[in-house]
């Protein structure tokens, strides 16, 4: 059983900052990648940022230069530092991990429960 627990969402004014955290626990053999997605009302879920176990990062064009993804591998934790927030960043943010449960298992996708980020203008 693997659990992902997110924290750090909330209400912030435009131009402000928030830091999201996601901690994974349970029977994790290895983590291939960690990332953050978001979904605004009426929109599809979209990738915000992700990072591989080799440290390679990628970002949505809309957040480049404002958001930074980082990990604390020893704690199976991924962070999303969000600066210069805009009203259009308002969404539910979900962490995502691609996890292997054993040496011989395939990778599985796990999702957090989501945390609301609201940016007021």
Shape: elongated
Major pleated sheet: 7 strands, mixed
Q: Which range does the strand content fall in?
A: over 45%
Radius of gyration: 14 Å
Mean pLDDT: 95
Per DSSP E runs of 2 or more residues, the count of β-strands stands at 11
| Total helical segments | 0
**Unreliable parts:** none
Helix fraction by DSSP (H/I, runs of at least 4): under 10%
Q: For the terminal residues, how far apart are their CA atoms?
A: 41 Å
Structural class: mainly beta
Q: Give, in order, the helices and strands.
A: EEEEEEEEEEE
Describe this protein's structure:
With 121 residues, the protein is an all-beta fold. Helices cover 0% and strands 60% of the residues. The chain contains no helices and 11 strands. The strands form 2 sheets. Strands 2, 4, 5, 6, 9, 10 and 11 form a 7-stranded mixed sheet that branches. A hairpin with a 4-residue loop joins strand 5 and strand 6 (57-59).
Give the topology, please:
Blueprint: E1 2-7, E2 10-13, E3 18-26, E4 30-39, E5 46-52, E6 57-59, E7 67-72, E8 77-82, E9 91-100, E10 107-111, E11 115-120
Parallel strand pairs: 2-11
Antiparallel strand pairs: 1-3, 3-8, 4-5, 4-9, 5-6, 7-8, 9-10, 9-11
Supply database-style keywords.
0% helix; four-stranded antiparallel β-sheet; mainly beta; 121 residues; seven-stranded mixed β-sheet; elongated
Question: Briefly, what is this?
Answer:
The protein is an all-beta fold.
